[in-house]
Structure formats: C-alpha cells, structure tokens
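stage 2 :: seqdesign
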C-alpha cells in the first residue's frame, strides 16, 4: 500500500515534536548530568550545568530533582553573573 508523502510528513513531524518534550520525571531512575558552554561575538562565555536525580519517594511516587547553574563570564574581569535553581518534579 502506498501513502502519499504529504500524508506521512505531518505524522513524522508530530512524533519528532512529542519526543523532544521529555519531562525529567519520565527518565529512568538514576543521576544525569550535562554541561554546555558557548561564547558569543562579544567574547562573553555562558556555561550551563544541569544535574538531574530521578528516584522514588516514600510513597512510591516518581520524583525528579533538577539543579541548574548558569554562569555568564563577560570579557571584563569583574562582572561574573551566576544563577542557580532547583526544581522538584513529582508524578
């Protein structure tokens, strides 16, 4: 059976979009870490560290704790900006 490309394209696009919207609590239990760094044309560097711990609470509800730290280093020496946040997701 042949399907026209115009019919299959929206289905594939919908599957890709839903796959990108993964919630931290949907991950298997464990610890996950990521670190990214980028520098723009003004020589400002931005680093983002994310640590996610997924497990179960005392009531067997799935729980994810996401710790994020973002640091911005401008080209001048004394203007470092760091923000940290914690997010708890329960399902």
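stage 2 :: out
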């Amino acid at each position: 059976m042949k399907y026209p490309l115009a019919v299959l394209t929206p289905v594939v696009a919908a599957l890709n979009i839903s796959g990108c919207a993964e919630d931290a609590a949907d991950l298997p239990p464990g610890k996950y870490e990521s670190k990214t760094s980028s520098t723009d044309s003004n020589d400002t560097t931005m680093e983002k560290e994310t640590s996610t711990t997924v497990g179960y609470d005392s009531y067997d509800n799935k729980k994810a704790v996401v710790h994020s730290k973002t640091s911005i280093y401008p080209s001048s020496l004394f203007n470092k900006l760091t923000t940290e946040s914690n997010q708890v997701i329960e399902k």
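stage 3 :: structure notes
- Residues 24-90 form one domain.
- DSSP finds one helix and four strands in the chain.
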